[in-house]
Amino acid sequence: MTAPLTPPPHPRDQSPHQGWQPPAAAAGQAHGPHGPHGSYGSHDTYGISGSYGQDGPGMKTEVREAAVVAVVVAFFGALLGVLWWWLAPRVPLVGDVGDEGWVVYFKDSEGEQAAGVDGTFTLLALAFGLVSAVAVFLWRRRGGVPLVVGLAVGGFLGALLAWRVGVWLGPTDDVIAHAKEAGKGVAFSAPLKLGAKGALLAWPLGALLVHLGLTALFGPRDVDPYQLQPPAGQQGPYGS
């Protein structure tokens, strides 16, 4: 005789404490509720990689790029110096011979040419800051502390270079010798000087403001992982 065959129990006939599950869910439970390694960062639970925060090029690459930006931006300070020397108004001086020798004084004591020299440098530095910030943003459409620091340092070094180049291209600092060469009562141009040293900060500050504004308006946005939805047909980490 053979034992009667007993059909397998129907899922409805199972104990309420046993809980029938589909094969996929049962296979998932073999590794724990959070994946085979028991942690959320090991698998793409939300449809993104566990290292989604590492979206930058790396600190070493950012530092190298910042150094390149600083050098290139500072190099254009020579062009700013040439433009400043070319566009800045001339301050006229006059030499005269007194009892103690040559004396040099301003031809127009109430003139505002000296203020125009500082103003020309400031406006040109702001324009260079705008152009450099736009160029850096178009080259790397993102922010980052090293990149911003490189832009600021390059702008300041460029302003220093422009100041020295403009002074070097301008009239000589020896005004007595220049007065003797021009002759008594003949007007000549004063040395190119930057009276307001705060104008040296116009380039780096302008570049920082423009670059931060462009980054805030057009830069990449950080993805919030809590707002991401799981792909169609895939359940979240806790199922449905």
Question: What would you note in describing this structure?
Answer:
The structure is a single chain. Helix content is 47%, strand content 7%. It is elongated, with a radius of gyration of 36 Å. Residues 15-20 and 22-55 have low confidence and may be disordered. The chain has seven helices and three strands. Helix 3 runs antiparallel to helix 4 (113-139) and helix 4 (113-139) runs parallel beside helix 7. With 240 residues, it is mainly alpha-helical. The protein has a three-stranded antiparallel beta sheet, covered by helices on one side. It has a domain at 60-218.
User: Helix count, per DSSP?
Assistant: 7
Strand order of the largest sheet: 2-1-3
Number of strands: 3
Helix percent band? 40-55%
Oligomer: single chain
Helix/sheet category: mainly alpha
Rounded to the nearest angstrom, the radius of gyration is 36 Å
Distance between the termini: 49 Å
Q: In what range is the share of β-strand residues?
A: 5-15%
The succession of helices and strands, N to C, reads: HHHEEHHHEH
- Largest sheet, described in full? 3 strands, antiparallel
Mean pLDDT score: 76
Low-confidence stretches: 15-20, 22-55
Tell me, briefly, the overall form.
elongated
Please outline the helices and strands.
Elements: H1 23-29, H2 59-75, H3 77-87, E1 92-98, E2 101-106, H4 113-139, H5 145-169, H6 175-182, E3 187-189, H7 202-218
Antiparallel strand pairs: 1-2, 1-3
For the structure shown, list the relevant keywords:
single chain; mainly alpha; 3 strands; 240 residues; elongated; three-stranded antiparallel sheet
